[in-house]
Structures are given as structure tokens and as C-alpha cells.
């Protein structure tokens, strides 16, 4: 069975309490439940992780990637500076889709750069919580098409 790691970075544990204009009112637990529901329909196993600490995310990628087929990551504020996260993702050899709830390309200049995007198979930004579902559907298809 295909297994996909869902990783969320700093402050995403505060979804539902953050600026609803950018992030909506749904919580991370609600997003994870929606992802899990769609994953079940797709026949995909998911594993969820959130940390406000870069090292925690690196440790999780290193510990979990050998049993996974792909990664969906929302690096939050580490998107622009998380080179150790990028290195862990590259070392994993797994396909990665980057997700952002808000449209980072329509926000402050500093949010528009991602250290992960050039190495990801795709990026979903600005589609709210549904971006995770689209990323899951895409990555599931990508993995199946490239298995060999």
C-alpha cells in the first residue's frame, strides 16, 4: 500500500485561531481528518506530523522516510529558510509536493521564496485546506505512474 507522509511546520498547529483571511477557520485536526478520508478512498496510508521546530521535522523525515512512498509538506515559516529540511527530503529520495494554504505568491515578498519548491514534483498554493487534498490526489497518481 502506498504510504504518504503529511508534514506541517511551525504555527500550523494554530490553524483555526490564526488570521482567517489567509488561513480560513478550519483546524489542522479537521484538515488531517479530511486528508485521511480521501486517502482511504484512494487506498493510501497516511502519517501525520507537525512540529514548530526545524530539527523535529528533520528527525521525523529521517525516521519515517524509509517506510514511505512520498511526502506532502507545508513548511510554514520554514519554507524560506529550512535548508536542513530540504536536505532531509533530498536524502529521502521521495517525491515531494509542497502545500501552502494561502497564496504565498500574492503575499509579502519574503513569503514568495521556497527552498523546497525547486526540488518538489509540485507546489499547491492558495487553494486553502483543499490544497492538501489536491496534493494527495496528485502525489498518489504520480507515485503509481512512476513505480517500477
Summarize the structure.
The protein has 148 residues and is an alpha/beta fold. It has a single domain, classed as Dehydroquinase, class II (Rossmann fold, 3-Layer(aba) Sandwich), CATH 3.40.50.
Structure description:
With 148 residues, the chain is of the alpha/beta class. The chain has one domain: Rossmann fold, CATH 3.40.50.9100. Helix content is 39%, strand content 19%. The chain is built from five helices and five strands; from the N terminus they run E-H-H-E-H-E-H-E-E-H. Strands 2-1-3-4-5 form a five-stranded parallel β-sheet, sandwiched between helices. Strand 3, helix 4 and strand 4 form a beta-alpha-beta unit. Helix 2 runs parallel beside helix 5 and helix 3 packs parallel to helix 4. It is globular, with a radius of gyration of 14 Å. The two termini are 14 Å apart.
